[in-house]
Amino acid sequence: MSDSGQPVWQRNLLVLWFATFIAGTGFSEVIPFLSLYVSELGKFSHGNLSMVSGLVYAATFVVVAVTAPMWGRFADRHGRKRLLLQTTIGSAIAITLMGLVTNAWQLVALRAAQGFFAGVIPNATALVAAETPKKKEGYALGIITTGYVGGNLLGPILGGFLAGLFSIRVTFFITGGLLFLSFLLSLFMVKETFKPDPKKIKNQPSLFDIHFLREFPNPKLTAWLLVSTIIVQAGLYSIYPVISLFVKELMNNHGPITVVAGIISSLPGIAMLIASPFWGRLGDRIGSNKILIYGFIFSIIFYFPQGFFTSVIVLGILRFLVGISNAAIYPIIQTLLAKKTPAGSTGMVFSLNQAAQAIGAVVGSMMGGFISNIFDYSGVFVFTALLLLVNLILLEWRVPEIRKNH
């Protein structure tokens, strides 16, 4: 119990929910005005502006994919709270400095630095998983998922609002200030009981050893869950490059296209925000593996028809249902990873999961543009459904543990 009488795990969850929400916001808030901000930093042709903006956007994810496992190993050796504090203050500094840049390459460098310090979300998740009673683990991980999903969802809206109300540069200062507040709350209010085991640390294989996953009790299950994260994230991000163009086509190039496209894009995130705690509680009762299978089945069913309807309203409903389905996948994968990972490797496995999400985001964005050029917009939705179907078949075939009750 904390001094206030509230269980420590609940206070940790509350504070770290705020931390992940602000971190998620910081990652996504630049999206509405990215190209506009880059255009203010130099004179670019239309083509060059798109390329530089893409580089600014991708820099964070590329660095996350490379550095996340390193941060996870560091956290398992020195404590999740310590790394949480280091990455929070690092993110606060990097985002604040974005408001002071004078050219696009400084912005690219700081976006890369933001990716380097992107340990807030996996370490907050690992800390919650380690400090929460096992019978409440699914619920707690469902709640923490709503933090960064909500941040990613509301970030573009909040960023656009603040940029319009103040200026683009002030937006970075405000977000940096909120991250610093998150740092102070985590410093003084979050408690960690985990103590690294020096003997286990000494025997841990190097990250550069291809067999480093063998430190987990079930490396095959861990590997397939990470592959599933990449595939599900790729499916989600494959839609983003084409969704506004698809909405434009459905609306016959008339009406508030950008507003409708923004709403359609945000619906899966809203649904995940609402449904994650429900799936987490249900998983604690009937088994996380069953919820994961349901999530894949529902996602496949709701993805497939999206490209064949000519109604924006029906598209919106299906996108919302996909979000509910994804809420049965993302947090449940994390719950299974937590349950099947020893306490000394929790930070590592959640950082690997973050790296998998970053890889999926990059692959999905490229895949969506490529497939839509060959098969039109409907092909993206069909391909995503087929990809998830293959993922489910491989999980059932190669990982028999998924069929058992967990």
TrEMBL record:
Major facilitator superfamily (MFS) profile domain ranges (all copies): 12-403
InterPro entries xref list: MFS, MFS_dom, MFS_sugar_transport-like, MFS_trans_sf, Tet-R_TetA/multi-R_MdtG-like
Top-rank lineage group of the source organism: Bacteria
Membrane topology designation: Multi-pass membrane protein
Gene3D superfamilies in alphabetical order: MFS general substrate transporter like domains, Multidrug resistance protein D
Cross-referenced Pfam families: MFS_1 (PF07690), Sugar_tr (PF00083)
Location(s) in or outside the cell: Cell membrane
Membrane among keywords: yes
Transmembrane intervals: 12-37, 49-71, 83-102, 108-129, 141-166, 172-190, 221-243, 255-279, 291-314, 320-338, 350-371, 377-395
Keywords annotated in UniProt: Cell membrane, Membrane, Transmembrane, Transmembrane helix, Transport
The protein's name: MFS transporter
